Amino acid sequence: MPEGCARGGPALPAADRLPPGPPLESPGVPRAAGPCSCGTPPGGHRATAFLLEAGRRLSASLNTRRCARATAELAASFLADTALVVLPADHARRSAWLRVSAGRPGLQEGTVSAAEASRVPGLAEALAGFPPVPSRWLDPAQAPGWLLPPGSGPAGHLLVTPLPGNGVAAGALVLARRRGGPAFHDDIEALAGLFAARAGAAISAAALHQEQNAVNAVLTAALLPPGLPSIDGVELAGSLRVAHQAARIGGDFYDVFLPAAGDAPAASGRAAAPLAVLGDVCGKGAPAAVLAGQILQSLRALLLVERRPERLAALINRSLIESPAPDSYATMVTAELHRAAGGRLRLDLAAAGHPAPLVLRADGTVEEVPARGTLLGLLPDAELLPAAVDLAPGELCLLYSDGVTEAFGGPAGREMYGEQRLKDALATCAGMPAEAVVQRLEQLGTEWLAGGEHDDRALLAIRARPR
Fold first, then answer.
1. 446 CB neighbour count, 10 Å cutoff
2. Does the structure show a pLDDT above 50 at 32?
3. Annotated domain spans of the chain
4. Residue 325, pLDDT score
5. For a FRET experiment, which of 4, 102, 216, 293 has its CA 20 to 30 Å from that of 379?
6. Which UniProt keywords apply (predicted)?
7. Cβ distance 411 to 400 under 8 Å?
8. Residue 352's closest CA among 279, 288, 244, 420?
9. Of the options 3.40.1190.10, 3.40.50.1110, 3.30.450.40, 3.20.20.450, the CATH number for the domain spanning 3-31+38-218
10. Beta strand 155-164 with 169-178: parallel, antiparallel or unpaired?
């Protein structure tokens, strides 16, 4: 049996109703004797106004339920005493329905099983996308009780038409007139078909939009910066600002991978250690984000068998060179984190075509780590010059992408931020927690841009926790 509920709500707002005048074949209004002088069917001007109003309201939303509600409200205001929109069945073979009745406030909605829906004459065929059956062939006495609102009495006339969608029906529209009211004549059926085509296109577009949004949300969630793990004796903080904020994803990436049982040993031969990575791929937006995600997934798999920075870079380089996608280039910097005696932190660093990491000492001195390497995806043999750095408690290492230093701004908006400004800004952050350092640098970079366009920008701060 169907499940339904009545939801209170306003009837069709006065502003959304048609201008005064007898609607074409409205219930209770006698049918005109013949065509008007302009050659249109009786009430043709009103029909045109109705279709224009339908187009306006149906195009105002990309939400499936709102489009279905607008369809039912419009149909009940002009075509029938009761209008019911039935949507395609879900995986449980149940169809959602929305019902509006003229003169009754609010919207009723619920769900119905496929078996119960098939009891409505012509509904199963309409949901399958078949052409509508003429109203005079449908027996309203066969309509189940759930089709009409309680207390409305039996239906005198039924009209069921598909809501054409994108290759498949977007649902079905059921129109009912009370017993004793005018029948659905050919001109009304034709008008209902025109209206259903507009409504079906709107509902189908809304459903496609919502489906694409759901897919995008899943993909975006997989490409967003991760929550950084907690590591004893280490502070971690990161920031990612993409070039196109509306997309929320871009070509810069960072992550920190914790070792798991059975992981390959560290480059030094010691037990596997946490590995921080920050990189930048060629391009912007979704294509760049997809490539960045592929690199991160590749690293996650490679770390099960390999942790040497030069080998990781070589394997990523090979995969990019063999990629069928054009412009598959990337820069990357990695840092293995090893805790040492006295609360110190040793970082084994390697950079492939990436800006050199910066170290902030306790006295405010900023040092550039001499880690160098070849851009990934450019040459068959990627060469790396690794480096190591020791951090005393409270000292910090900053990994960053070139979008930070290549940001154009300043008084005229045409000056590059540059490495020296970044070093000077970092020097003022001595003694600050990693999170505060990242926030400070991000704030200064945003102020420099002054709302101008920018590339993706990524920061990752690694600090030896003060004792």
1. 15
2. no
3. 3-31+38-218, 225-464
4. 80
5. 293
6. Hydrolase
7. no
8. 279
9. 3.30.450.40
10. antiparallel
